[in-house]
Design brief:
The chain is mainly β. It contains one helix and 24 strands. The relative contact order is 0.10. It binds coenzyme A.
Length: 227
């Protein structure tokens, strides 16, 4: 795919220094810096030393925004063949945050993803996110003991969603949340802990394991049973 087929006429206007956006060939790792917005993905950066890498071939971006504000040294990697629709990323108030979305992952129909303070987000390959998704990797504000004024909990380093997980409609994933490979988060669930067991279904608020030894396919039940 030629870069000029998905770049727009609009150039980036960033506030801060040493902020860069690159297209990266997934096979050769050859990097090309770009200065124009991509179709379907609006990028705004305010802060210093931030870097975004978009890997080729691009899947598709529809009505998406990345806002990096008051962050220093954030590194965002969108791997090849991801599909992002209606996603708003707020990367804010941190140092050296890493945001990685691995190849073939899809978000269909709206997600707000907040990577604040010194936390990071790693979504592994081939995950499928339904609509109306919320992800917060940190709380965003301090919670402290009123006597000692000591912070109760610092943000965890990284929120990880394992390879080939399905996040159902209207799910929320908060700090300390995480899933292992091939798992399903049932519709309208709220995930607040990391589940290290693979091939499970979680449901409820807070989400708990309701089934073990399962997996899922992007195919419909009809297509799957005919295969
Ligand atoms: C995860 C899912 C596939 C599980 O389906 P399932 O394996 O048939 O689960 P069951 O219907 O057998 O439910 C098992 C138990 O979990 C409960 N449960 C199922 N989904 C739940 C949910 N979203 N929240 C809370 N509890 C739930 C059921 O009430 C049942 O409880 P019980 O044993 O006390 O009766 C399904 O619940 C789901 O959420 N699908 C996602 C739908 C969606 O978001 N589609 C968008 C397409 S991208």
């Amino acid at each position: 795919m030629k870069p000029d087929t998905f770049l727009t006429e609009k150039t980036f206007s960033f506030n801060g220094s040493n902020n860069h956006v690159y297209l990266v060939d997934a096979e050769t790792h050859e990097k090309t810096e770009i200065h124009h917005q991509l179709q379907g993905l609006n990028i705004y950066i305010e802060g210093n030393d931030n870097e975004i890498e978009i890997m080729l071939p691009i899947g598709k971006f529809v009505n998406c925004n990345i806002y990096i504000t008051k962050s220093i040294g954030a590194h965002v990697v969108f791997e090849n063949y991801i599909y992002l629709e209606g996603c708003f990323f707020s990367i804010h108030n941190g140092e050296k945050q890493n945001i990685i979305i691995e190849k073939y992952t899809s978000f269909t129909g709206g997600a707000t993803i907040w990577v604040h303070e010194n936390s990071s987000l790693h979504i592994k390959q081939d995950c499928m996110f339904s609509s109306n998704i919320v992800i917060w990797t940190a709380d965003g504000h301090a919670v402290y003991d009123i006597k000692s004024k000591k912070i109760l909990k610092f943000p965890p380093k990284e929120l990880v969603i394992g390879e080939h997980c399905w996040i159902g409609y209207n799910c929320s994933i908060y700090k300390n949340g995480g899933l292992a490979k091939n798992s399903i988060l049932a519709a309208s669930s709220v995930l607040t802990q990391t589940i290290n067991e693979e091939n499970v279904v979680l449901a409820g608020n807070p989400a708990k394991i309701i089934k073990r030894g399962v997996s899922w396919s992007r195919m419909s039940t009809k297509e799957f049973s005919e295969n």
